Amino acid sequence: MDTTAATSYPALTGDIETDVVVVGGGIAGLCTAWELTEAGQRVVLVEADRIAAGVTGYTTAKLSVLHTLIYARVRDSFGPEAARLYGESQQQAVERVAAVASRLDIDCELERVPAYTYSESPDGLDAIRDEVAAATEAGLAASLVTETGLPFPVAGAIRVENQAQFHPRKYLLALAEDLAARGGQIFERTRATGLDEGDPCTVTTEAGHTITARQVVIATHYPVFDRGLLFARMEPRRELVVAGPIPAELDPQGVFITTEHNTRSVRTAPYRDGQRLLIVTGEHFTPGTDGVVEHWEKLTAWAQDRFPGTPIEYRWATQDNTSADKVPFIGRFHPGTSRVYVATGFGGWGMSTGVLAGQLLAALITGTEPPWTRLYDPRRLNLAREAGSMLKLQAKVAGHFVGDRLRPSHVDSVDDIGPDAGAVVRIGGRHCAVYRDDAGGLHAVSARCTHLGCIVHFNDAETAWECPCHGSRFGIDGSVIQGPANTPLSQVDVARS
Ligand code: FES
User: Fold this and answer.
1) How many Å lie between the centroid of ligand 1 and the Cα of residue 395?
2) I want to staple 343 with a disulfide (CB 3.0 to 4.6 A). Which of 130, 312, 357, 471 is the partner?
3) 400 lines ligand 1 (CB under 6 A)
4) DSSP code string of 284-336
5) How far apart are CA 275 and CA 250, in angstroms?
6) What is the chain's pLDDT, residue by residue, as a tens digit (497 residues)?
């Protein structure tokens, strides 16, 4: 976000008609729109805010097929052929970025690097060995190593060759320009608020305009129109990132991840003065959880312990959704539709999967079925695979839905809220989310999430209201930052309550 210009595509100001409307301008939506334009379709893309500036703008952008320990999991749940299709589909997506960047001459800092999942503890070695076996069986160039470029010892790691890292906004903004130059239309600050699945379909915007299209793609990270009830099959999580310059000679030259220490992920990127920007991710937590500041401190301490002397110049947070069976949902949205498509549940691996989603959805819409169509089909529902995770998830949601209502307020009165702090307060029998700014001004909104009614919690590190049920996020003025909620929290007049 800091090294690319802001975009300024216009908002939609009238009714229009097209072949396909794509809702959501992150990597999945932009790649879908671009692939459809390549295939000769007329495309309209609408984005509630700015393109490539939501989750995609804050990714750490590993373009890798090694998704922690996915191959053993997919092999065990879906069988070895599914693991092979997973690897094949993800690798060809990596190659798609390289090919498109080369063809369009996009300088997106694409660098070929190996990818590693490592364990510092010998206790994690069995899982690493199993992943090497599963990834090798899936057709990837995987090996077990004990030496990595990291400046600390590991007990073992799986290394997969020929992966990549890049600057996603440089890539995607160029894709958007190319799409627009070829007649595709992009509308920013255009929130889609209604979907009528007719023949044709109609998408309605917040401003009351309509887009009529034969087909609709919902690519809003967490789907805003959840016709497939995917909210019951996905879990949101937030993750923190810190970044700072390191001397180029200390570059570990790879992309790395471990499940230890509440997840740590490491990569570097080109930076000024011949240095590299070290990017460290980790400390995942459920949105709406207390203690985010402490998570930042832990992550910063880890980065500076493992890469001594690194000044932290950037920090940010990002959000992922993971499906119950860990395989993304890409394809027709629900059993009754051949017109509405979805891409979601990327589990933190949205770069290769977002590109893959664009290819897969464009293929389905134009009448072909890639071999990995069934693997990613959102309509799959295998209770043997998903029931455990779904039940746990729903128990957690039910706990929040009921428990947070019965819980006494965080504070008794708005007078107990200090400067730059927020809390849920009962005012006139109603749960209100109240934030006090540094000047003492109060900003109060309903604490009832506009998705399905759970009570939001305050994130003290990011000054935002977050819903612990499905991860919706709101600004202190109630505006939607992150779905599935699609309408703002209503304003509350504290003085009159
Ligand atoms: Fe579902 Fe809030 S995100 S109830």
Assistant:
1) 14
2) 357
3) no
4) EE-TT-S-HHHHHHHHHHHHHHHSTT----EEEEEEEEEETTSS-EEEESSTT
5) 9
6) 999 999 999 999 999 999 999 999 999 999 999 999 999 999 999 999 999 999 999 999 999 999 999 999 999 999 999 999 999 999 999 999 999 999 999 999 999 999 999 999 999 999 999 999 999 999 999 999 999 999 999 999 999 999 999 999 999 999 999 999 999 999 999 999 999 999 999 999 999 999 999 999 999 998 988 777 787 788 899 999 999 999 999 999 999 999 999 999 999 999 998 899 999 999 999 888 878 889 999 999 999 999 998 999 999 999 999 998 999 999 999 888 889 999 999 999 999 999 999 999 999 999 999 999 999 999 887 766 767 766 777 666 666 666 665 564 567 788 888 899 999 998 878 889 999 999 999 999 999 999 989 999 999 888 999 999 889 999 999 999 988 898 999 999 876 55
Q: Where does 53-138 show beta strands of DSSP type E?
A: 62-63, 111-119
C-beta of 452 in contact with ligand 1 (< 6 A): yes
Structure tokens at 284: 């995942």
Would you say the CB of residue 288 lies under 6 angstroms from ligand 1?
A: no
Fold for the domain defined by 16-58+169-232+326-381: FAD/NAD(P)-binding domain (3.50.50)
Establish whether residue 233 lines the binding site of ligand 1, counting it when its CB lies within 6 angstroms of any ligand atom: no
* C-beta of 279 in contact with ligand 1 (< 6 A): no
What DSSP state is assigned to residue 7? P
Q: CB of 278 closer than 6 A to ligand 1?
A: no
| Ligand 1 centroid, distance to 375 Cα (angstroms) | 28
Helix (H, G, I), strand (E, B) or coil at 480: strand
| 108 neighbors 171 (Cβ within 8 angstroms) | yes
Q: Where are the domains of the chain?
A: 16-58+169-232+326-381, 109-164+233-322, 408-496
The CATH topology of domain 109-164+233-322 is: D-Amino Acid Oxidase; Chain A, domain 2 (3.30.9)
| Ligand 1 near 451 CB (within 6 A) | yes
Residue nearest to atom 4 of ligand 1 (CA): 452
Amino acid at 166: F
Q: Which homologous superfamily does the CATH classification assign to the domain defined by 408-496?
A: Rieske [2Fe-2S] iron-sulphur domain (2.102.10.10)
- Pocket mutation for ligand 1, best pick of 445, 472, 473, 481 (most atoms within 8 Å of C-beta): 472
